[in-house]
Amino acid sequence: MVMKKIEKLIIVTLSLILFTSCYDRDIIDRKDFNYTLPKVENLSFTQDGNVITLSWQLPGNISEDFKRPLEASVQVVENNIYRQKISLINEINTVNITIDPNKEYRFIVKLLGFLTPEAKVQGFTDRVFSEGEVIDIK
User: Fold this and answer.
1) Distance CA 50, CA 137 (A)
2) Residues with Cβ < 8 Å from 84, sequence gap 6 or more?
3) CA–CA separation, 66 vs 119, rounded Å?
4) Do 41 and 87 touch, CB atoms closer than 8 A?
5) Which among 64, 59, 126, 131 has a CA at the least distance from the CA of 93?
């Protein structure tokens, strides 16, 4: 009986040590990464039956520290549930998406860029997303 309690105590203690040691707050709090991408501009849509066409413009103030062409990422949210993510390469700025007209949709469009080798910072990713621009369709 005493042995089982000691065994449980050891297991709980080791579990706590294991899970708390995996958390590195320094990585989260680090603020010296100064690369950002601006949001897409003039996001709009047209609807033809059950096809939505999203279109946008790339901002003009994109840093030379990013490789070109950029990518775009479109997240499709159907009735508040993330349904799919569409990746568009070569700076494509329009996409057709088939929808169910009886449902509500939210589309989130973000730019994705990769830092040039000269701009890459040791210990940081070279992949940077912009903030999302959102369109709701009800």
Assistant:
1) 12
2) 75, 76
3) 8
4) no
5) 59
pTM across the whole model: 0.74
Query: pLDDT tens across 58-99, in order?
Result: 999 999 999 999 999 999 999 999 999 999 999 999 999 999
Question: Which is it for the CA torsion 91, 96, 100, 103, positive or negative?
Answer: positive
- Report angle CA 86, 92, 97 to the nearest 5 degrees: 40
Phi, psi of 136 (to 5 degrees): -105, 135
Model confidence pLDDT, tens digit, residues 3-60: 778 888 888 777 766 666 555 555 555 555 678 899 999 999 999 999 999 999 999 9
Residue 101: CB atoms within 10 Å:
10
Give the distance, in angstroms, between the CA of residue 120 and the centroid of all CA atoms in the same chain.
Answer: 19
The answer to whether the Cα torsion of 62, 66, 72, 75 is positive or negative is: negative
